[in-house]
Amino acid sequence: AAGVIQSPRHLIKEKRETATLKCYPIPRHDTVYWYQQGPGQDPQFLISFYEKMQSDKGSIPDRFSAQQFSDYHSELNMSSLELGDSALYFCASSPGQGSLDEQYFGPGTRLTVT
Amino acid sequence: TQLLEQSPQFLSIQEGENLTVYCNSSSVFSSLQWYRQEPGEGPVLLVTVVTGGEVKKLKRLTFQFGDARKDSSLHITAAQPGDTGLYLCAGKTGGFKTIFGAGTRLFVKA
């Protein structure tokens, strides 16, 4: 079965640079979630999209922005990178809106800021 | 402040032992999920519980949702080394935002 695809899997950037993370949800899933997970921490919800519109917002810094495109893939844009942005970034998708939908996670993008 | 409190944070047991992991909150959740995560990989969904008092079984894993939908437990019977991993509970209070617990790191020794 197709899973959530994230690219790149690993990314190394320097402080103040920008980064773009991509997420391709499971086919026919119209909801995408972004999470940030620091070392030894639980995933922190950043933002979600349903049908190409932002549906909820969590602890996403103002330096970050995201969008969902017509083909339902999503991109997380990160600017003015800081050392503290080093983390695993996960994308998850679910088949529809509402509180009962289960999320399926991608393998993550490991971002290292030096 | 962690909205979802998980306990214990770390558990090391021998193969064949039983264990229970708890997930507690002062908030009511419309649904609660349990995930298992391997190092460097994304969380994998184990189960979703929705109804207060609900019990779900997945082979040797038993999940229970509290009557008031504020807490949940995961019980593993006869743990095996393959059960080793980070177990996360996550809940939605409504809408799209999901809150994760800090996780329980389980190590099962052969």
Structural features, described:
The complex is a heterodimer of chains A (114) and B (110). By secondary structure, chain A is mostly beta strands. Chain A contains no helices and eleven strands. In chain A, strand 4 (31-37) and strand 5 (44-50) form a beta hairpin. Chain A starts with a strand and ends with a strand. Chain B has no helices and eleven strands. In chain B, a hairpin with a 5-residue loop joins strand 9 (85-92) and strand 10. Chain B is globular. The A-B interface holds A 4, 31, 33, 41-45, 48, 50, 55-56, 58, 88, 90, 92, 97, 99-100, 102-108, 110 and B 30-31, 33, 35, 40-45, 48, 50, 88, 92, 94-103.
Task: Give the overall average pLDDT of chain B.
Answer: 92
Number of helical segments with 4 or more residues of chain A: 0
Structural category of chain A: mainly beta
Mean pLDDT of chain A: 92
Radius of gyration of chain A, in Å, reads 13 Å
Main beta sheet of chain A, described?
A: 7 strands, mixed
| Terminal residue distance of chain A | 37 Å
Q: N- to C-terminal separation of chain B? A: 36 Å
In DSSP terms, counting alpha (H) and pi (I) runs of 4 or more, how many helices of chain B?
Answer: 0
Largest interface: A-B, 27 and 24 residues
Number of strands of chain A: 11
- The total of beta strands of chain B comes to 11
> What oligomerization state is this entry in?
heterodimer
Give me the Rg of chain B, rounded: 13 Å
Largest sheet of chain B: 6 strands, mixed
What percentage of amino acids of chain B are in beta strands?
over 45%
Q: DSSP strand (E) fraction of chain A?
A: over 45%
